[in-house]
Amino acid sequence: MKKPIILINFKAYENSFGKKGVDIAKRIEKISIEYSTEVILSVPATMIPILSQEVSLPIYAQHVDSYPLGAHTGSLLPEMIKEAGAKGTLLNHSEKRIRADEIHDALLRLNKLGLESVVCVDRYELVEPMAILRPTAILIEPPELIGSGISVSKAKPEVITNAVKEISKVPGVFLIAGAGISNGEDVYTAVKLGADGIGVASAVMKAKEPEKVVEDFIKSGIKAMDERNDRN
Ligand SMILES: O=C[C@H](O)COP(=O)(O)O
């Protein structure tokens, strides 16, 4: 992952799939290339093959199941997303919670397959216990702020600072902050508080000009990282 991490969760909006999904991904790709940075797109499973081919950005699934290959109707397995072209996946998003043992089993599989992983948690007390399972990153999001337009950076900065303290106990795992991120200032504040980047959905997926929103996020994230002197 490249800092500042900008992870855009397409969720299941009306423009998250089909031609509209490809269009928004391409607009984001263009901005990302302009700033020589990387934006991760976490997309509906049906969009993984086409977006992996059509854009140069890292494409993630939004969830995987941890069942073994076999008789598991309706499952989305790590092997399947890898074959479809995904670079990684979200796990345990607040809109798709799974049990701790399922997170553990999924991470073993993902790591073995060389896939990246972002485990979502809703409070800082879960950061270290999840980080020791060796995901690529933890995404902390207070659920009550998701989709609210009120950012974690402004409304609950202590969630980020506490999570930053916890992640420092497990070197090599990134910390991403999300929920309600709406503008560059929210990104700047999250990164200045110590996050490696941000996770976002509605501010981009509902925007008339998503590329402008993403540009604002990238510029603010880069500025904050440069001020921290911590960019890679
Ligand atoms: O995965 C992304 C988050 O749930 C954030 O959603 P939001 O930006 O709409 O608050």
From TrEMBL:
Write down the CDD domains for this protein, in alphabetical order.
TIM (cd00311)
Active site per database record: 93 (electrophile), 141 (proton acceptor)
EC assignment: 5.3.1.1
Keywords, alphabetical: Cytoplasm, Gluconeogenesis, Glycolysis, Isomerase
Identify the metabolic or biological route this protein is part of. Carbohydrate degradation; glycolysis; D-glyceraldehyde 3-phosphate from glycerone phosphate: step 1/1; Carbohydrate biosynthesis; gluconeogenesis
Q: Which GO terms describe its cellular component?
A: cytoplasm
InterPro entries assigned: Aldolase_TIM (IPR013785), TIM_sf (IPR035990), Triosephosphate_isomerase (IPR000652), Triosephosphate_isomerase_arc (IPR022891)
Q: What is an example of a Pfam family matching this protein?
A: TIM
**Binding sites annotated in the UniProt record for substrate:** 9-11, 146, 180, 201-202
Q: Which reaction does it catalyse?
A: D-glyceraldehyde 3-phosphate = dihydroxyacetone phosphate
Molecular function (GO) terms for this protein are:
triose-phosphate isomerase activity
Spell out the subcellular localization from the entry.
Cytoplasm
* Enzyme's top EC category: isomerase
- Span-the-membrane segments of this chain are none
Q: Which NCBIfam families match?
A: PRK04302.1 (NF003302), tim (TIGR00419)
Q: Which family does it belong to?
A: Belongs to the triosephosphate isomerase family.
The UniProt function text for this chain reads: Involved in the gluconeogenesis. Catalyzes stereospecifically the conversion of dihydroxyacetone phosphate (DHAP) to D-glyceraldehyde-3-phosphate (G3P).
HAMAP family per the record?
Answer: TIM_A
Q: How does it assemble?
A: Homotetramer; dimer of dimers.
Q: What is this protein called?
A: Triosephosphate isomerase
Q: Which organism is it from?
A: Acidianus hospitalis (strain W1)
